[in-house]
Amino acid sequence: MSAAPESVNPTDIVEALVREYLVRAGCTKSLEEFNKEKPKHSKSITKREVLRKSLGLDKAAAYYKKQNPTAEGVPATLDVWVLYQMAKVNTWSDGPGAQAPRPAAKPAAGPRGDGPEDASAPVASSMMPRRPSALGLATAPTAPGGLPPPRQGFAVPSPSSGASPAGTPRRPDGASDNSPAAARPAARLSAPGMPLSASASALRGPGLGSGSGTGSPAAGVSPAPRMSTMMMGTPNAVKIASGPATGPAGGMSATAPPRAPAARPSGGNELVLEDCDEEFGQDDAGGHGASMGAAGFATMRISGGPALRKPGTPISPDTMRQLKTLLWGNMGQPPPSWKQGFFFNTHAGLQFGLVQKLGGPCGVLAAVQAHILGALHSPTTGFNTTPRTPEQLSALTAAIAEILWDARMGPHSVLVLPEGEAGGAASKLGYDQLCRTLTSHSASSREALVDLVRGALPLLMSEDGWGVVLLVMSAALSRGVANVRADMDEPNNSLMGMHGYCTQELVHLLILGSATSNVFDGNKDLDGTTTLKGISRKCRLGMLTLFEWYKYVEVGASLKSPSLPVWVVCSESHFTVLFAADKDSGARCMRDALPFDLCYYDELANMDSIIKLSVSKDPRGGWTAKMGTTIGDRGKCEGHNIPPLECVIETRWPGVKVDWNGHDPIL
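Request: output the structure for the sequence above.
Response:
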């Protein structure tokens, strides 16, 4: 089977399967209702070739056509998938165009870890094909036409202690049950040296069984391999390793090349996650099926650091009330667009970039993106824009830790996380429910903070989770609600502005550590009684804004000339990032030595390649000379086809021209 395209999300594959089937079946009303509940988006799969290639069914479809030369076309991909799976267990239904049942191939000798469905189990009839346990995962290789060899990183459960009748599944709690749920495998989530009772509060979510899975294997069945659990909330699935760290202490290591799973020693304490869905379709869609092996889902291991997070400190109702008012103002809570985590772009060349799902939290995403670029910067090579998965994780950890460490006023930084069982199901909680589960975790050193953030990455990176909100709350509490208000010119304002946008104060809190309201250097006294607070120190990361082009504000040298050639850009009510394309350009742009190249990245723009901008001297003086320098002159630019980003660049390097190198200028 061919590998899936790197950018394909399993959820998009499932939705495309349903849509195509409903179209081929003529279920117009059902399709209409489905599209209402699951609207198409920019990454939805609309081409059958992409869908079949994503599932590795391009060859299977060709095989079907070869076996049925008189059939009109090829059936829906879902039909092809079913026929393909049935063929793998040597049973075919006798529906239209089906072949006569072929004799089952004799499985290769050797132990198998899928419980009652061992080599001696009877083969199902052709009318009802036997369903492979976990789609044939973690099984021994078989003869041609049998079940496929095991996939790395997955396992089926070893039978519980105690005998059970032949062919009768055994539930983790010891009860015998013939229901489909009882026959399903249980996924194990474990960490070295982690007792069940202690780890349950931090890792157990809905559907988590109470059994420890410590029973010895039944005779003739090999122990189930040790398993690492895939956290599928992000485009880059996060694997929390159940084995010892293979990289340096406190570091992160990739799982490539994959290793064969080691046998799990009996008697170990493990959490058992049982799939409790009763319906066949739900189990296939959400289980460890073929979509889990899609090439677009890079496997990450988070190793090092403490194996178990200590319980946090409850947040008092009064502090929570003040925090909500500071962050969200009269709304009292973030809009739905803020419910997302920090996950990376999967397009080649954009692996450094975070992805924003909807408008609103762009200031938060851009600020974190700038810190990530800072973590990916090397004085000798410049910015690494194609980080591998362990480098992505390391950069994100460093970025979040840097934000919280810079924001602290006292000796401690704070990371806010849901406590207990809510941690495993935070993405399913509403905002008010989330707040009732939150506790604060303090760190008095950078090293302790990095360990704390690293352990919380699966929660912070969950695509549909609360990572963005948790970071903002953590930054505000690290600095202190009263101190954040003291940073602002208008202490009664909130950090989220109109329409769910980020304020300048919030962006400054995340890139500078203080929620100052202005971008100029130092403070300015207006009338002896009112002081406007600006930037008081050299900045590691910079900022440029279109408002300066229109002469509404003046950005000081601290933000225009940061330590690193990275700038958060504010343009047209949207925050993005601009950074030097390479080491030489970084040095030249900081010295104002033309020409040089800049890279532009927009987390919300669904970019498939980086935009490289070549900046050089314009003999005619650029837009600065063409439009004039007064506030009235600059106001005339509105409504003209002038790329705002070029105007932003000229606030830092006046009189230049910008070559978009084949990209369409953003107007």
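The chain has 23 helices and 18 strands.
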